[in-house]
Design goal:
With 323 residues, the chain is mainly α. The protein is built from 14 helices and four strands. The strands form two sheets. It has a two-stranded parallel ribbon with strand order 1-2. A two-stranded parallel ribbon has the order 3-4. Helix 4 runs parallel beside helix 14 and helix 8 crosses helix 9. The model has no long low-confidence stretch (mean pLDDT 96). Bound molecules: adenosine monophosphate. The site of adenosine monophosphate (AMP) has 15 residues, from helix 1. Adenosine monophosphate binds next to helix 1.
């Protein structure tokens, strides 16, 4: 995850929430992708490290456990850069130009200069991030499938020249639902300012929910409303475990026998109930002096041992070893 801002409910639905159960089944690596943050935000690095710590506190809050999984920082394992460089020697530039997000992001983020080699090479650095740990699987949502497909092609091409030296990763398809924004936009996203942060207080959550976009045609509560595509109900479906209550709200909303305020107040309550244990674990992690730093340094040390072994193998394979 890139430390470019505070984490929000979209990250919980699309990433963290999927990652937590994987810990029971796999040897998992989760990392702060600080170099990846530079691909789009190279001019704004002032908050990067503090976001990194905040994000890791959120991971722990959401249920990732540094005792069971390895948490590390990309830049503390500089072997990632070495593998990226070596991969770049065999990958044709058009492969990267053809990745759909390349043009999409350039069009979407017009205020950022995305013409750098770093941004073009983003999916190649991701390939190195994965391959350096001999990763079998990468948990991906819909927005990352093309990147993983590229990673597989890159690994095959590298192995074609140098032998069976790095492992071709497989996608582990996770929940690909996109959480819409508070404003009804199709995606909750930092750049759109339509988020509820995992670190928001109960009061902030309530205020944001009360101001949420809903059915705009419903100027009075006795007008039948639309449930489909209404983000208030999308959130109820995603976060309110009381399905009987949600079904009753939907029926009454369609019939025009319930006000938006009641539906939203219940949503705020459900969201806060979901966020409370996250807040607690998050606060406990932040309260221990030096704890997050220790987690990242120790995890990065462990990761580096593994990355070092892979790179020794890769250097042998490309026959650049000085004895
Ligand atoms: P970002 O911080 O936007 O680079 O997002 C990192 C990852 O979080 C993405 O690859 C998605 O898996 C997930 N994510 C971010 N925003 C959302 C959202 N609104 N709905 C679902 N998943 C999201």
């Amino acid at each position: 995850m890139r430390p470019t801002g505070r984490l929000h409910l979209g990250h919980l639905v699309g990433a963290l929430g999927n990652w937590v159960p994987l810990q029971a089944q796999y040897d998992c690596y989760y990392f702060v992708a600080d170099w990846h943050a530079l691909t789009s935000d190279f001019a704004e690095t002032g908050s990067l490290v503090s976001y990194a710590y905040e994000n890791v506190a959120d991971w722990i809050g959401a249920g990732l456990d540094p005792e069971r999984s390895t948490f590390f920082v990309q830049s503390l394992v500089p072997e990632h850069a070495e593998l990226y460089l070596l991969l770049s020697m065999v990958v044709p530039v058009p492969w990267l130009e053809r990745v759909p997000t390349y043009k999409e992001q350039q069009d979407a983020l017009k205020d950022k200069d995305l013409s750098s080699i770093g941004f073009l090479g983003y999916p190649l650095l991701q390939t190195a991030d994965v391959a350096i740990y001999d990763a079998q699987y990468v948990p991906v949502g819909g927005d990352q499938v093309a990147h993983l497909e590229l990673a597989r092609e890159v690994v095959r091409r590298f192995n074609k020249f140098f032998g069976d030296v790095i492992v071709e990763p497989l996608p582990l398809l996770t929940n690909i639902d996109r959480l819409p924004g508070l404003d009804g936009d199709k995606k909750m996203s930092k750049s759109l300012g339509n988020t509820i942060h995992l670190s928001d207080t109960p009061d902030e959550v309530k205020k944001k929910v009360m101001r949420m976009y809903t059915d705009p045609k419903r100027v009075r509560s006795d007008i039948p409303g639309t449930v489909e595509g209404n983000p208030v109900f999308t959130y109820h479906d995603a976060f309110n475990p009381d399905t009987a209550q949600v079904d009753a709200f939907k029926a009454r909303y369609r019939a025009g026998t319930i006000g938006d305020v009641e539906v939203k107040a219940a949503l705020a309550t459900a969201l806060n109930a979901r966020l409370d244990p996250i807040r607690e674990r998050r606060a406990a992690a932040l309260a221990k002096p030096g704890y997050l730093h220790e987690v990242l340094v120790e995890g990065s040390r462990r990761a580096r041992v593994m990355a070092g072994e892979t790179m020794a193998r890769v250097r042998e394979a490309i026959r650049i070893v000085y004895r």
